[in-house]
Amino acid sequence: MLTVTSVNVNGLRAAAKKGFVEWLAGTSADVVCLQEVRAEPHQLPDEVRAPDGWHALYAPAEAKGRAGVALLSRREPERTRVGFGSAEFDTSGRYVEIDLPGVTVASLYLPSGEVGTERQDEKIRFMDAFLPYLERLRASAAADGREVLVCGDWNIAHREADLKNWKANRKASGFLPEERAWLGRVFDETGYVDVVRAQHPDQDGPYSWWSYRGRAFDNDAGWRIDYHVATEGLAGRAVKSWVERAATHAERWSDHAPVTAVFDL
Asked: Who's near 185: CB < 8 A, 6+ residues apart?
């Protein structure tokens, strides 16, 4: 079995003080994909930077205090890669991947965007550059007899079932028609599968992000923007998947919840 968890930590130093360290000590995951680390490795406490029993790979952003992704693996990776061959984005702390026996696992933090601003333009440029890489990655992995799993904060709710208040967010970044269409291309044209949705086809959510404003968490007024995106062969081996939603608002250590999937390899 291969168990993989993905979570946007909303600042790893802050999350470590709120419960991330305890969560990591108790998880059964073989691989943990982190997004929005917002720190360079030397800025992290030893027990966070290099936790016992884990091989850690960090890809911090060149812009200090922003983005940043990481991968924690119980098994030493056969190969590592930071970035996906983009001059603009390879130093932006958005993508990192490792090769384990038979599978490539990646951690992705797609830009969040904001309508009418440069941030949205950046998001579109990232999407335009990343889709061809996903196609190349699937093809090269298939040629090597490997599967691919890209986990992370994709910052797009694909369907109406993926956010509670979808009617009020039709013109908001994260649910724009062009963003949803792009994610549809990932699934429909490039041969990848939304693992959690495939296992929970008829349910609203399960949501993985809730705003800290108001009572969004208590009312489960969330978004499902954290995905396990797998090649078809690996997706077909998924045996279960779930969102590790905190029991109460006070017990949260991020505005995102960990999303976990188990694969029978």
From this structure: 131
Which of 93, 80, 159 lies closest to 126, judged by CA?
93
* Cα gap 5→27, rounded to integer Å: 9
- Structure-block tokens of residue 149: 């799993």
Annotated binding residue 256: yes
Residue 46 annotated as binding site: no
- Respond yes or no: is residue 133 known to be catalytic: no
Which of 58, 95, 109, 227 is the catalytic position?
A: 109
**Residue 213: pLDDT above 90?**
no
Q: Is 36 annotated as a binding residue?
A: yes
pLDDT of 37 higher than 90: yes
Whether 212 contacts 245, CB under 8 Å: no
Find out whether 155 is annotated in a ligand binding site: yes
- Domains annotated on the chain, with CATH: 2-263 (3.60.10.10)
> Which pTM does this prediction carry?
0.97
Is-catalytic flag, 249?
no
Q: Which of 30, 153, 162, 226 is catalytic?
A: 153
Residues 86 and 99: their CA atoms lie apart, in Å, by: 20
Of 176, 175, 183, the residue nearest 223 (C-alpha): 175
CA distance 150 to 107: 6
Q: Is 109 a catalytic residue?
A: yes
